[in-house]
Amino acid sequence: MRVDTCRHCGATRDQDAASAVTWVRERDPDGREHWLCPDCVRRHVRDIEAKLSHEWW
Ligand SMILES: [Zn+2]
Question: Which superkingdom heads the taxonomic lineage of this protein's source (predicted)?
Fold first, then answer.
């Protein structure tokens, strides 16, 4: 089974948990996909909306 982890804090996404749907999948310009856990999404929602590079976080 594939395990997704938050790229920011390393939390593990349980695909069977109800909270899994609140995770956000991002795609980098190079095509790689990353996951963000709900906590990090809340914390960085402004950065995500502004499409800032992760270097700015
Ligand atoms: Zn996180």
Answer: Bacteria
Q: How far, in Å, from the CA of 52 to the mean position of ligand 1?
A: 17
Per the structure block, which two tokens stand in for 39? 């906590």
| Torsion, Cα of 13, 17, 21, 27 (10° steps) | 20
Structure confidence by residue, pLDDT tens digits, 4-57: 999 999 999 998 899 899 999 988 899 999 999 999 998 887 776 776 665 655
